[in-house]
Amino acid sequence: MLLTLTTTHRPATDLGYLLVKHPGKVHSFGVPTGTAYVLYPEADDDRCTAALLLDVDPQLLRAHRDAFELSQYVNDRPYAASSLLSSALAKVFRTALRGVSKDRPELAGSAIPLEIRVPVLRGTPDLVTRLFAPLGWSVTATPIPFEPEIGGDSRYVDLTLTGEVRLADALNHLYVLLPVLDDGKHYWVAPDEIEKLLRSGEGWLAAHPEKVLIARRYLAHRRSLATTALQLLEADQPVTEEEAELPVARRAPLAEQRRDAVVAALTEVGAARVLDLGCGGGALLAALVKNRAFTEIVGADVATRSLDQAARKLKIERLGDRVRLIQTALTYRDDRLRGFDAAVLMEVIEHVDLPRLPALESAVFGHAKPRAVIVTTPNVEYNVHYEGLTGMRHSDHRFEWTRAEFAGWASRTADEYGYTVTIRGVGEHDEVTGAPTQLALFRTQEVSA
Known about the structure:
One of its GO terms (biological process) is regulatory ncRNA-mediated gene silencing. Its cofactor is Mg(2+). InterPro entries: 3'-RNA_MeTfrase_Hen1_bac, Hen1, Hen1_N, Hen1_N_sf, Methyltransf_12, SAM-dependent_MTases_sf. The chain has 16 helices and 14 strands. By secondary structure, the protein is of the alpha/beta class. The chain has two domains: 2-187, c-terminal autoproteolytic domain of nucleoporin nup98 (2-Layer Sandwich), CATH 3.30.1610.20; 254-448, Vaccinia Virus protein VP39 (Rossmann fold, 3-Layer(aba) Sandwich). The strands form two sheets. Strands 2-3-4-1-5-7-6 form a seven-stranded antiparallel β-sheet. It has a seven-stranded mixed β-sheet with strand order 10-9-8-11-12-14-13, with helices on both faces. The longest helix has 16 residues, at 167-182. The relative contact order is 0.08. The model is unreliable at 62-71 and 237-250 (pLDDT under 50).
């Protein structure tokens, strides 16, 4: 998945200062969806091009499903620009998106000649033009043809935008409109997406002739969210990163609340040596590293790519012996996991086939036998609050349990392996459906006493 930014502003290599990426280097970044690279195929005083290349995690591709029976194996996600690329752009060019440059502050605030190319993008030439032309871009959207033996044009275009635009504005246009043209997001769209839309659309979205289409598609056709966003645009209410005046009270994202709840539980049991089982890209590990009470931290995952991503996220080479990453399958016994104060299975068990769950229980609770185990998993009863959600919250989930089912499993597991267990909710509590996440804190008799 590729996007290039070219300028002929002199000296053109000032683009490196605006992007905060040196033109003489290849930069790589671990992002939640894979690995992003920034490199410069050309860089001199007359012309400079920065390329953003996203290598999408194959596990994410396997989670993709649509009406096509084999879509989890054959799909356009590695190539067609989408919210995957938009999210990578937001992380890699975060400073440039804000229009900030320590080295070239005046240039960051000025329009410069830009040429942007997105070689593969879903959309018709007409729709692409309707979205970008009102923003001052000259638009060339060339349909990508099928192979000659098939004939005709595909649903993709090769897009080139040219114009004199402030770089921050150009990046914000892309951040919003790439997922709008793809008409889908790789993550669940929650109310805080309104704030992202209004912040990135500041100064241009309210006057855009296609603002209704943009709001609906960006917010995944969730009518209530789109209506709220359009009302705020009409009211011209200021939205800042620190505090957005939304009709829905701002709360920390559920993922953040979940991490905080896990860290609190670890503190509650006095854990110093901690296992993060199924650590993925390292989100919980990053939170654990910040707390000096955790003196030894081990992240374990079966996917080497996830471990590589976690290593980059943590800058693990700077952490010495305090943090280690190991590859292991949680359904097999591993002596390296023995002897720890606590183990965390955060949003892991629902990815395990139910017939394999007893093997995980035996390996973690029986063989590794930490003094405490913390398990979090979705509460399926809460799913009714997610507008438009059908089925489970993630296509890779093998099951999602009600509160009674989770409590039953936790009680049986605790009895079998000599633990006591308490269960609590994480996130906004509803009197009927409970909280979105359920957490079980298992303790050995020693810890319970």
